[in-house]
Design brief:
The complex is a heterodimer of chains A (158) and B (342).
Chain A lengths: L3 E7 L2 E7 L5 H8 L18 E4 L2 E4 L12 E3 L12 H8 L9 H14 L5 H7 L11 H16 L1
Parallel strand pairs in A: 1-5
Antiparallel strand pairs in A: 1-2, 3-4, 3-5
Helix pairs in contact in A: 2-5
Chain B lengths: L11 H4 L5 H9 L1 H6 L2 H7 L12 E3 L4 H10 L4 E4 L5 H6 L7 E4 L4 H4 L1 E4 L2 E5 L4 H5 L2 H6 L1 H7 L5 H4 L4 H6 L7 H7 L3 E6 L2 E6 L4 E3 L2 E2 L6 E8 L5 E8 L10 E9 L5 E9 L6 E2 L1 H7 L6 H14 L10 H24 L2
The chains are: A alpha+beta (158), B alpha+beta (342).
Chain lengths: 158, 342
């Protein structure tokens, strides 16, 4: 089966790539574009490690075909920092040790960014429900939730 | 001792050796590709992994209903409709399905639209649950339908999952289906013979099976504008707070007259039979009553009596039968309060 030619915008950059119809967006990001920040945890949409923002919606890249990205805008963890300047969420995750092994971290950061863009002042409950699709087997979540709430406060003040 | 003064080694920056925008293009053509873009990498990761040797499929994204019908009909059962993909991609990966063609219906404008007029709402089969949940009109008119579709998976799943997919995946435990049945939703189907409208409860014919004919697919749902003093609600039981599959799900929609007597009711029941059910006996227990304790007890008994569940890790037969009645009673109380409030 011939590969499809896809044009998309990834982290603001116009990008074109070839992909097989059965290749997921996550496969394309990692293996074709070498944007390996998005992780494959479960490959079935349960763990959120591959979270990206597709046309403004938080989605699991493992549940999107690469060809579906045609004409779409994709935001990944690689687009979160501005050069050497970390996003406040990234900084708060570090300051508060909201990660241990780090495999879930890109997904949490992208998901939390999508939350704060929609709801700059989430309650703890809202953060926990929004992030229910992101699994972390190290931290027990409390540090992650606190880091997101602190980042939200900092962004509101700035 | 690692240099903690360089935080990006631990966070996004760890992966962003090529984070700067300009470098992305270089990776499309740069030398790295020659090293890593091998067939071996592709074989390891793509969906094909757990498919039989020689698996392949094609992908088409038609822009009209007619074009989609023609593609589906021409492939005589070997084509699958792709809407949100949250079930289909999992089935592809696990080798549960091996279509020769995937027809992505999201490129058809009508399939994504949420429209309202004096008669009610038309919700495209491929509109995402997130989009529907953000529609103020649908939320105000049919809060039970919205609370049901908001229970489907995580935020990430909500961004993709659709009503058409939730219905046609034909899981007995699909959350949106009992709520749509209670709401009296009609399913709009397009096929080689034209279009037809069918009550939602007539679509699922068994676990993983639908009554759709070859070449047919769901294009949308019609929800009437609720009558005065109407309310609906959906409740499900899962053993945790979030992110699980229903042990039991119950949707109730009812209408009260000016004196508070129920004049119309529908009850949809999920996860307790091979298909989601419309329970007419349960609705009859409410009609003519003030939705008081006696009527609610009769509703609970009729709902429990309609259950034909299985034992599985989520719940036993006895537990599911009992809980179905309890949830029906609670959902009816919520629906009654919503109806009385407008």
């Amino acid at each position: 089966m011939p590969k499809h030619h896809v044009t998309a915008t990834i982290n603001g950059d116009p990008v074109e790539f070839l992909c097989a119809p059965e290749q997921t967006l996550l496969d394309v990001l990692r293996d074709v574009l070498y944007l390996t920040g998005s992780k494959e945890g479960c490959g079935s949409g349960d763990c959120g490690a591959c979270s990206v923002i597709l046309d403004g919606r938080l989605v699991c890249a493992c549940l999107v075909l690469g060809v579906e990205a045609q004409g779409c805008s994709v935001e990944t963890i690689e687009g979160m920092a501005r050069g050497d300047v970390l996003h406040p969420l990234q900084r708060k995750f570090l300051e508060q040790a909201a990660l241990q092994c780090g495999v879930c971290t890109p997904g949490f950061l992208v998901a939390a960014k999508a939350l704060l863009e929609r709801n700059p002042q989430p309650t703890e409950t809202e953060v926990r429900y929004w992030l229910a699709g992101n699994l972390c087997r190290c931290t027990g979540y409390d540090k992650i939730v606190r880091a997101v709430l602190d980042a939200a406060a900092e962004i509101r003040e700035s | 001792m690692p240099d903690l003064g360089k935080p990006r080694r631990f966070l996004g920056g760890l992966y962003t050796a090529h984070a700067s925008v300009g470098s992305l293009g270089a990776h499309l053509v740069g030398p790295v590709k020659a090293d890593r873009g091998s067939q071996a990498v592709d074989e390891r990761r793509i969906i094909r992994a757990r498919q039989p040797q020689g698996f392949w499929m094609d992908y088409r994204s038609p822009s009209s209903v007619q074009e989609a019908v023609a593609l589906l009909a021409a492939h005589d059962g070997a084509a699958h409709v792709l809407a949100g993909g949250t079930d289909l991609l999992v089935k592809l990966r696990t080798g549960f399905v091996d279509p020769k063609l995937v027809v992505d219906v999201k490129g058809i404008p009508r399939l994504r639209a949420i429209e309202s007029d004096a008669r009610g709402f038309r919700i495209g089969a491929a509109a995402s649950c997130a989009e529907i949940g953000e529609h103020a009109g649908v939320m105000a008119a049919w809060p039970g339908v919205v609370e049901a579709l908001r229970l489907i998976g995580s935020t990430q799943i909500q961004g993709r999952a659709t009503l058409g997919g939730n219905l046609c995946n034909a899981s007995p435990a699909a959350d949106s289906v009992p709520a749509l049945i209670a709401a009296g939703a009609l399913c709009q189907i397009a096929g080689p013979g034209g279009e037809r409208e069918v009550p939602v409860e007539n679509i699922v014919s068994g676990p993983g099976r639908t009554s759709l004919a070859r070449g047919e697919f769901v294009v949308g749902f019609r929800l009437e504008k609720p009558r005065q003093r109407s309310g609906d609600a959906y409740l499900r039981l899962i053993p945790r707070t979030e992110m699980d599959i229903a042990v039991v799900g119950v949707g109730v929609a009812l209408t009260l007259d000016q004196t508070g007597v129920c004049t119309h009711a529908r009850v949809g029941l999920g996860a307790v039979a091979p298909t989601p059910l419309l329970v007419a006996e349960a609705a009859r227990a409410l009609i003519g009553s003030r939705v008081d304790d006696k009527a609610l007890a009769a509703l609970a008994a009729a709902t429990s009596a309609a259950c034909k569940p299985i034992d599985d890790k989520r719940g036993t037969v006895a537990y599911r039968v009992k809980v179905a009645g309890v949830l029906a009673r609670r959902a009816a109380r919520i629906a009654r309060e919503r109806a009385a409030g407008r």
